[in-house]
Amino acid sequence: MKKYILHQVVVLVSSFYSLSTAAFGQQNDLESLGKVDGIVMPNYHYDFVPDFTYQEVSDRIQAMDLEMQFELNDRVFSFIQYFTVRNREYIKMVLARKEQYFPMYAETMQSYGMPSDIIYLSIVESGLDPKIRSKMGAVGLWQFMPVTGREYGMQVTSDMDDRMDPEKSTVAAAKYLKSLYKMFGNWEVALAAYNCGPGNVRKAIRRSGGKTTFWGIYDHLPKETRSYVPQFQAMLYVLNHLEEHNLHLEEPSYPLEYESINFNRAFNLERMSSLSGICLADLEKLNPSIKNRKIPESHQAIALRIPKSKAFFVKENLASIRDSLGQSTPLLLAATPGSEPSISVESASRNSSRLAYKVKAGDALGTIATRHGVSINQLRNWNNLRSNLIKVGQILIIHAGEEQSTVTSSALALNKASTPTSKTYTVQPGDSLWIISKKHSLTIEQIKRLNNLNSTNIKPGQRLIIG
């Protein structure tokens, strides 16, 4: 009888194990099962969605330290359910972008005496995408229409569009929202006016019989605006209660640190990238107002944002870079991506002590360096190379003659660090961010932030800033 009972217990435990592994999609019992006080228990799946009640949400909101009115009702609660249950991927996308903009948002809003809660409005407007464009023609993180953008000091032309500039558009949003609050005396109503315009809000107030709160005029507002403020409040709640809803930030991205440098001439970003070794994508990211990758004559006084890691080199060689940008012959730039340069690259301007070399079949970085009387390290620094690998057809910038000592000293400075005072580490085979963090008493997040890394992937030969 005891053997029979024991057999049944084993069968039940085995059945429980089979059901558990099937339910959680795990093949390895160590991955799907945990032990609590000797009892085998299933772990929650990473994307487990916790249950919650209206009262729990209400209590959490009451405990929040808010600067703006927040009235929980069924409409707001439905949006909280939507973002925490049905559209969790949207929240994760927002979290990945948040650190790029929220610190700057908070500083700007504080400087204009705005409630700190207002920064969450940009999520509803754009999903934190600085280049997003609506069907109506609104653009940027704060979705300004052309007329309103110009009214608040932003250039909107065929060459420049400041609505895509995070800092300029945030300043404009702070000014506009502050004026709307002065107009209506209520932040919820000011937000509604930001969405549909002050004229529509005044009309809703008249139709409601003179009511001056958002929920008082709710039924008389445009349909989109009725959802707009509840979405903002839902987002304000969700991003302040991520843990309660099992929402986690996986791979954050951070803003590129930069310095602004004025070149006082018209030029295109491809040419600047070729001359300075700055990644073209970084130039575009830091200067989103610039359209068509060029600064025209009409805007030549604009200051270009340069990655801080390259600013020292650019400032040390500012005169020669500026002169090269102004040359009429496209020495270092093909007419279109993938096309041949319009002149022989080895006949580059010797007057500026700079030439461009087109890699041929059989070339190696060492033979090119020897041929031109420079070192491999100089070639790598001048061309922003992370290894000795080159390919046929690649254009290499080589500095020679009178300016070599100046450029070489700048390149060596860059080799030592991104700035004169920073320290770097070259990734070795077998290294990981965890290993490097332990070697240099840093956290993984500190290394990622210093190097603007969006993941933990690194490769041998890569140079990392570590201090």
Please summarize what this structure is.
The protein is mainly alpha-helical and 467 residues long. The protein has 21 helices and 10 strands.
CATH class of the largest domain: Mainly Alpha
Main beta-sheet annotation: 2 strands, antiparallel
CATH topology label of the largest domain: Lysozyme
How many E strands?
10
Oligomer designation: single chain
From the alpha-carbon coordinates, what is the Rg to the nearest angstrom?
29 Å
How are strands sequenced across the largest beta sheet? 1-2
Which structural category fits the helices and strands? mainly alpha
Number of domains: 4
Helix content: 40-55%
Strand content bin: 5-15%
Question: Helical element count?
Answer: 21
Separation, N- and C-terminal Cα atoms: 71 Å
In the CATH hierarchy, what is the architecture of the largest domain at level 2? Orthogonal Bundle
Query: pLDDT below 50 for ≥5 consecutive residues: which ranges?
Result: 1-45, 328-352, 401-421
Average pLDDT reading: 79
What sort of overall outline do the alpha carbons produce when their principal axes are compared? globular
Task: List descriptors.
single chain, 467 residues, mainly alpha, Lysozyme, 4 domains, two-stranded antiparallel ribbon, 10 strands
Task: Tell me about this structure.
The protein has 21 helices and 10 strands. It has 467 residues and is mainly alpha-helical. The chain folds into 4 domains: 2-42, no CATH class; 54-245, Lysozyme (Orthogonal Bundle), CATH 1.10.530; 258-416, no CATH class; 424-465, Membrane-bound Lytic Murein Transglycosylase D, Chain A. It is globular and about 85 Å long. The strands form 5 sheets. It has a two-stranded antiparallel ribbon. It has a two-stranded antiparallel sheet with strand order 3-6. A two-stranded antiparallel ribbon has the order 4-5. Mean pLDDT is 79; it is low at 1-45, 328-352 and 401-421. The protein has helices at residues 2-23, 29-32, 54-63, 74-86, 88-111, 121-126, 146-151, 166-184, 187-196, 198-207, 214-217, 223-238, 269-276, 280-286, 308-316, 318-325, 365-371, 376-382, 404-416, 433-439, 444-450; strands spanning 33-36, 39-42, 258-262, 267-268, 294-295, 303-307, 354-358, 395-399, 424-426, 463-465. α4 (74-86) packs across α12 and α18 (376-382) packs across α19.
